[in-house]
Amino acid sequence: MKDYFKYFDKFTFALLLLLSVISIFLIYSAGHSSHETHYLKQAVWLIVSLLLFFIVFVLKTDFIFRNAFAVYLALIVILVMQIVLGGTVAKTKSWFRLWGIGFQFSEFVKIPLALYLAKMLTQFEVIDWKAFVKLMVVIVAPVALIILQPDMGVSFILCSFVPLVILLKKVKPAVLVISLLLVVFSGMIGWYSILRPYQRDRIISFLNPSEYKTSTGYHIIQSKIAIGSGGLGGKGYLKGSQSQYQFLPARHTDFIISVIGEEFGFINTSLLFFVFFIFFYRQFKFNFKNDEEFYFIYLFNGLILFQFIINVTMAIGFFPVLGISLPFVSYGGSSLLSLFIGEAIVFRIKINNYLT
Length: 356
Known about the structure:
With 356 residues, the chain is mainly α. The protein has one domain (2-355). It contains 16 helices and five strands. A three-stranded antiparallel beta sheet has the order 1-2-3, covered by helices on one side. Strands 4-5 form a two-stranded parallel ribbon. A hairpin with a 2-residue loop joins β1 and β2 (92-98). The longest helix has 29 residues, at 256-284. The two termini are 15 Å apart.
């Protein structure tokens, strides 16, 4: 155990704790004027996440990778059950209630999917047609089920595994060209056959939000006002007019970065981004001895990086509003649990590399 503590990445873990604690104060501010208690729930979720982090951390990575496909299949079954039996929250059936507690199991798909994709990538030297089809089936199965719930945010984030897989392995040129054409074709089918009218309006409105200022463009406009009004130094904690007077929608979830920008300004928001930068830098800059573990590290943290970029660009109007949260900071118990469980595996892999 002394070796485990010696090689445990304490600095990066401190960054995770810092982001998660900052989250509680920001969520308190976001719900302060309406006397919401989301911050207390987030504090409880953080404690549970930390407990699960250390439980998963002590598991052997061989055991984790060996059971990845079984967990993946179990979550596929749960996603099907959610569509049939799940409760409806915010127009989606992505929630599953257990003992009175709501769980969004689509968030947990990230972990076994990244693990199983990592195992699969070790079997291929080059991604040819056969490998490409196998990889796409594994990715598309949960994505399709999550779209049917419908949860566009999580499904879009899971789609980031496609470019990540392509970046990690050599791909035959013909496969790459056809895959790009399939993306375009799938996008057209999704636009006309799968997306609901309000979802299409969200995508259209980001191009010209002022034209939809009383409907789907309202989120982007209020977010821009909040961030812009914060200036360099911000208005001060609990003093943001857009958040405190409740003009800003989803301020404790999708648009929490707008609360940060308004109350703490550009300088302090940049400091938060710097914390994220250091976190990603330390997670990616590491020499791994095992290809399977290497692929998981890059797939899981690559997904978090992708989610971070989309959330920020969404808040400043450079990307459509899809319901994508800011990792470790936005309110959400299921999201926080999945992130800490995934990072527990990452931290365990790092120690394995020191001890072997």
